Every structure is written in C-alpha cells, then in structure tokens.
Amino acid sequence: MKKILLKILILALSMGIAVAEGTNSPPAVPAPGTNQLNIVYGEAAGQKLLLDAHIPEGAGKFPIAILVHGGGWMSGDREHEFYELFDALSRANFTWFTIEYRMAPTNRWPACFEDEQAAIRWVKQHGGEFKGDTHRIALIGYSSGGHLVTLAGTTAGEDTRVQAIVGVSPPTDLVSDNLRRGGLTISMRSLFGFDSTNIDGPVIEVLKEYSPLTYVKPGLPPFLLIQGSADRTVPHTQSEAFQAALLKAGDTCDFITITNAQHRIADWEKFDPDWQSKVIAWLQQKLPSTK
C-alpha cells in the first residue's frame, strides 16, 4: 500500500500538481495541466506577494478563477484551504490562481484588501499568459476570504471589476456579526487595531464601512453564496440577508445551502458530495465561452 501511495505522489509531482499536506489526500488520477508556484504578483512594505497558477492543457482561452483563502484575516495560506476546488476547477479546464495576502495583526486593514485588488489587476493584465480569458474572471473566497471577494465585488472600479463572485461562508455584515457575539472578536481587533471589545458608535461606523452589505447596488456582477445550514462561525442568516439585498437591488444572487454542514469546508463532502460540481456548473453558466 505504501508503494502505491508513493507512486501516486510521484506521478502527481511529475505532472505539476501541488499536493496538499494534512488530512486531504491527492486525487488518485491528477487533473491534466501544470501548476506554476511562487509567482510574484506584487510587493508591499518590502514583502513579495505570491500566487500559484494552474494552466490547463489545450490552447484556451479558458475561464479564470482567483481564489482567496480564509483564516480570520490572521492565518491560512494559499496552498491548502481550497484543495477541494483545485481539482474540480482543473478538471473543468479553468485557469486558476490562488493568492496570498498580508495578514493581521502584523498588517492592519486595508493591507489584505489592497493585496487582493493588486492580484485582480495582475490577473487581468497577465491572465492571458496562462491561457486564461481575462474577460471571464470569477473571484472565489472562503470565510474571511469570502468577505474580501464580496467586498471587492460590491466596490469594484473598472480596474478590479470581474464577471462573477463566489462567496463561500462569507461574513458580509461585520456590524451584526460582532453585535451578536456581544463584543469585538480578536480578528476585528487585530485587523482594525481596536484596543477593546467594546462596540460603540465609531466602531460601528468602521465595521459598516468595510461590510460588503453596505455597498449593494444595481449593476453588480452575479453572485453565488454557498454555506452550511449549521454554520456557527458565520451565521447562515448573513448570507440570507446579503442575497435579499442583492435581489432587491435587481442583481443576480444564487444560494446553495449545504444542509447540516458547519463552517469547516473540508467536511462538506460528508453532507453534499456534489457541492464542488454545483459551484463549477454555476461558474460555467455565468462565464460562458465566447467562441
């Protein structure tokens, strides 16, 4: 058995497939294409900002996905969190990029958001070099990464506008989320530099200013929200309210609920083995080929 697993690992590495550590195992048959790792997409405060890219086989042009990891704005990495979607996107012939960004408390707001915007601009400029179609770009973010992509989607200018947004368990209303907790979370204190858990008027104004819900308006790109019904980290009601606001504004917003699933994305296959396929199907519908 060990010899078989070793052969699978060697095959995956030889084909340019990034193998995740921890409990997630690589697929027995790696998806076609190659990966390029540690690409510099920018520099901030003396730190090189990196992303990894997957390039499909064939001539292209392929739809593009930019993945933004979670971790409470304080932790996480670009390599492992979206492993479940890496393979699904690869098999669906997406050019995809998974990005890192500066995190709290070392880097306060808006460092993480500025890095995400820099990555979007970089992909719009260079995505064609990876066989991608820069007119068919989707942002996909999980948890705090979901906050970043939904905020990017609702506040975009011409240089950061994309064609679809996928928020995976995204906190979209920082005010209500912290009020329900009875005080500011350590993530919010680290991210914005607050020195107490108190939620007063000025604090509420800051939380509101950086909540995606604040910027819902007509003319936004289509959104997909996906969340577990038993999520205790980001309440399901957050996505319900965000969808309602988007629909009221005349925007498109679809919602996939994974019944009984909690916040941890790695557990979702137990509750819905097809959740990745549903995301891919939605992306293919919203990013149709122009050929």
Question: Outline of this structure?
Answer:
The chain has 291 residues and is of the alpha/beta class. The protein has helices spanning 2-14, 83-91, 111-126, 144-155, 174-181, 186-192, 201-209, 236-248, 275-286; strands at residues 34-44, 47-55, 62-68, 95-99, 132-142, 164-168, 223-228, 253-258.
Write structural notes for this entry.
The chain has helices at 2-14, 83-91, 111-126, 144-155, 174-181, 186-192, 201-209, 236-248, 275-286; strands at 34-44, 47-55, 62-68, 95-99, 132-142, 164-168, 223-228, 253-258. It is of the alpha/beta class and 291 residues long. Strands 1-2-4-3-5-6-7-8 form an 8-stranded mixed sheet, sandwiched between helices. The N and C termini lie far apart (46 Å). The model is unreliable at 1-28 (pLDDT under 50).
Q: Beta fraction of the residues?
A: 15-25%
Q: Judging from the principal axes of the Cα atoms, what is the shape?
A: globular
Strand tally: 8
Any idea what the radius of gyration is?
Answer: 19 Å
Strand order within the widest beta sheet: 1-2-4-3-5-6-7-8
Overall mean pLDDT: 90
For the biggest sheet, the summary is: 8 strands, mixed
Give the SSE string.
HEEEHEHEHEHHHEHEH
Number of helices: 9
Structural class: alpha/beta
Distance between the termini: 46 Å
